[in-house]
Design brief:
2 domains, Rossmann fold, Sig_transdc_resp-reg_receiver, 7 helices, CheY-like_superfamily, 181 residues
């Protein structure tokens, strides 16, 4: 997974970059919104981890710009000045999560793992959708009533998986969605 870290503090960018790299992530860093947008234009990060307070535009503005380009791009905001109003505003704007500095390593790792699992599930659901759109391919061959029933069951499972993808953990565990422990 490729992570774009946006923070105006060089020391924090370096620490996050080293930590994420040691966990197996590919990392790019930016010190401001302009640099982050340049990186977004030249590469496709799987996740953006951005400070809220940046020179020029804020991390919330960055979040809105990135979401306007790609609504599915996970953006996690971090701040040293946490308050409930800022967190609510960030979540309403589409933030995946809102973390406070100093960043708790276990929490960061859990957020990254959650994003990774969500992306894997979305990819699996897209693949299944594509297979279902082409009934003569994708391993399901035939147009008998029994095969139509099989396709309907699979489509129902995909729907439940998608619904659970946006729900709580207990929903996922009971959804029958693959790739859930």
């Amino acid at each position: 997974m490729y992570v774009l870290v946006v923070d105006d503090e060089p020391a924090l960018r370096e620490v996050l970059s080293q930590r994420l790299t040691s966990w197996g992530y590919r990392v790019a860093t930016a010190g401001d919104v302009q640099e982050a947008e340049t990186l977004l234009n030249t590469s496709e990060p799987d996740l953006v981890l951005s400070d809220v307070v940046l020179p020029g535009l804020s991390g919330l503005d960055l979040l809105r710009r990135f979401k306007a380009r790609n609504a599915a791009l996970p953006v996690v905001l971090i701040t040293a000045h946490a308050n409930v109003d800022a967190a609510v505003e960030a979540m309403k704007a589409g933030a995946t999560d809102f973390l406070t500095k100093p960043i708790d390593t276990a929490t960061l790792r859990a957020v990254l793992e959650s994003v990774r699992v969500d992306q894997r599930e979305r990819k699996a659901a897209r693949s299944l959708d594509e297979a279902l759109q082409e009934p003569a391919t994708g391993g399901l061959i035939g147009s008998s009533a029994a095969m139509r029933d099989v396709r309907a069951i699979v489509a129902h499972r995909v729907h439940r998986c998608r619904r659970a993808h946006h729900g709580r953990k207990w929903h996922r565990q009971r959804s029958g969605c693959p790739n859930h422990p």
